[in-house]
Task: inverse folding
Protein backbone atom coordinates (compact mmCIF):
# COMPACT_ATOMS: atom_id res chain seq x y z
CA UNK A 1 0.00 0.00 0.00
CA UNK A 2 1.43 3.44 -0.87
CA UNK A 3 2.63 5.54 2.05
CA UNK A 4 0.30 8.44 1.18
CA UNK A 5 -2.71 6.16 1.57
CA UNK A 6 -1.39 4.94 4.92
CA UNK A 7 -0.78 8.49 6.08
CA UNK A 8 -4.30 9.48 5.03
CA UNK A 9 -5.73 6.50 6.94
CA UNK A 10 -3.65 7.39 10.01
CA UNK A 11 -4.78 11.03 9.73
CA UNK A 12 -8.42 9.92 9.58
CA UNK A 13 -7.87 7.53 12.50
CA UNK A 14 -6.44 10.38 14.61
CA UNK A 15 -9.34 12.62 13.67
CA UNK A 16 -11.84 9.96 14.73
CA UNK A 17 -10.08 9.46 18.07
CA UNK A 18 -10.05 13.21 18.73
CA UNK A 19 -13.75 13.53 17.88
CA UNK A 20 -14.40 10.69 20.35
CA UNK A 21 -12.61 12.69 23.03
CA UNK A 22 -9.47 10.54 23.13
CA UNK A 23 -6.84 13.27 23.66
CA UNK A 24 -4.53 11.78 26.27
CA UNK A 25 -2.57 9.43 24.00
CA UNK A 26 1.10 10.02 23.30
CA UNK A 27 2.13 9.92 19.63
CA UNK A 28 3.62 6.47 20.21
CA UNK A 29 0.41 5.21 21.86
CA UNK A 30 -1.68 6.59 18.99
CA UNK A 31 0.53 4.85 16.43
CA UNK A 32 0.42 1.59 18.41
CA UNK A 33 -3.38 1.79 18.75
CA UNK A 34 -3.72 2.43 15.02
CA UNK A 35 -1.50 -0.54 14.25
CA UNK A 36 -3.57 -2.74 16.56
CA UNK A 37 -6.85 -1.63 14.97
CA UNK A 38 -5.62 -1.62 11.37
CA UNK A 39 -5.91 -5.07 9.84
CA UNK A 40 -3.50 -4.02 7.09
CA UNK A 41 -0.83 -2.92 9.56
CA UNK A 42 1.54 -5.61 8.27
CA UNK A 43 1.77 -3.63 5.06
CA UNK A 44 3.08 -0.44 6.72
CA UNK A 45 6.22 0.84 5.07
CA UNK A 46 9.08 0.42 7.57
CA UNK A 47 10.72 3.57 6.21
CA UNK A 48 7.60 5.61 6.99
CA UNK A 49 7.48 4.19 10.52
CA UNK A 50 11.17 4.98 11.00
CA UNK A 51 10.65 8.54 9.77
CA UNK A 52 7.73 9.06 12.17
CA UNK A 53 9.71 7.65 15.09
CA UNK A 54 12.68 9.91 14.23
CA UNK A 55 10.39 12.94 14.10
CA UNK A 56 8.86 12.10 17.48
CA UNK A 57 12.31 11.67 19.01
CA UNK A 58 13.40 15.00 17.50
CA UNK A 59 10.48 16.77 19.18
CA UNK A 60 11.39 15.13 22.49
CA UNK A 61 14.95 16.41 22.12
CA UNK A 62 13.70 19.92 21.44
CA UNK A 63 14.76 20.03 17.81
CA UNK A 64 12.89 22.63 15.76
CA UNK A 65 10.08 21.29 13.65
CA UNK A 66 7.55 22.62 11.19
CA UNK A 67 4.27 23.95 12.46
CA UNK A 68 1.17 22.09 11.30
CA UNK A 69 0.36 24.99 8.99
CA UNK A 70 3.84 24.83 7.41
CA UNK A 71 3.65 21.07 7.03
CA UNK A 72 0.17 21.22 5.50
CA UNK A 73 1.23 23.94 3.03
CA UNK A 74 4.33 21.99 1.95
CA UNK A 75 2.47 18.68 1.87
CA UNK A 76 -0.29 20.08 -0.34
CA UNK A 77 2.23 21.80 -2.66
CA UNK A 78 4.08 18.54 -3.30
CA UNK A 79 0.98 16.39 -3.66
CA UNK A 80 -1.38 18.69 -5.57
CA UNK A 81 -4.42 16.91 -6.96
CA UNK A 82 -3.41 13.48 -5.62
CA UNK A 83 -6.30 13.54 -3.21
CA UNK A 84 -8.33 16.07 -1.32
CA UNK A 85 -7.44 16.68 2.30
CA UNK A 86 -10.18 18.39 4.23
CA UNK A 87 -8.89 18.55 7.78
CA UNK A 88 -11.34 19.28 10.53
CA UNK A 89 -10.35 22.66 12.04
CA UNK A 90 -11.24 21.35 15.51
CA UNK A 91 -8.83 18.44 15.07
CA UNK A 92 -6.04 20.73 13.95
CA UNK A 93 -6.66 23.07 16.88
CA UNK A 94 -6.60 20.15 19.35
CA UNK A 95 -3.28 19.00 17.89
CA UNK A 96 -1.87 22.55 18.06
CA UNK A 97 -2.89 22.81 21.74
CA UNK A 98 -1.35 19.41 22.53
CA UNK A 99 1.91 20.27 20.76
CA UNK A 100 2.09 23.62 22.54
CA UNK A 101 1.64 21.77 25.84
CA UNK A 102 4.52 19.45 24.93
CA UNK A 103 6.72 22.44 24.07
CA UNK A 104 5.84 24.04 27.42
CA UNK A 105 6.46 20.80 29.29
CA UNK A 106 2.81 20.35 30.30
CA UNK A 107 2.16 16.63 30.57
CA UNK A 108 -1.62 16.95 30.90
CA UNK A 109 -4.13 17.67 28.19
CA UNK A 110 -7.33 19.70 28.59
CA UNK A 111 -9.25 16.42 28.31
CA UNK A 112 -7.17 14.84 31.08
CA UNK A 113 -7.86 17.83 33.34
CA UNK A 114 -11.57 17.67 32.54
CA UNK A 115 -11.62 13.92 33.18
CA UNK A 116 -9.83 14.32 36.53
CA UNK A 117 -12.18 17.12 37.66
CA UNK A 118 -15.28 15.25 36.47
CA UNK A 119 -14.23 12.09 38.32
CA UNK A 120 -13.53 14.05 41.52
CA UNK A 121 -16.84 15.93 41.30
CA UNK A 122 -18.85 12.73 40.82
CA UNK A 123 -16.92 10.54 43.24
CA UNK A 124 -15.48 8.29 40.55
CA UNK A 125 -12.09 6.57 40.93
CA UNK A 126 -9.12 8.09 39.09
CA UNK A 127 -8.41 6.78 35.62
Result:
Amino acid sequence: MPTTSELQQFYEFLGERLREGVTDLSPEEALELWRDEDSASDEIDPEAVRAIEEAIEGVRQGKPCKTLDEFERDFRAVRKNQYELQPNPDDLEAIRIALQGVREGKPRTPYAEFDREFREEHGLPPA
Q: What stands out?
A: The chain has one domain: 3-121. The mean pLDDT is 77. The chain is about 65% helix and 0% strand. Residues 3-121 form one domain.
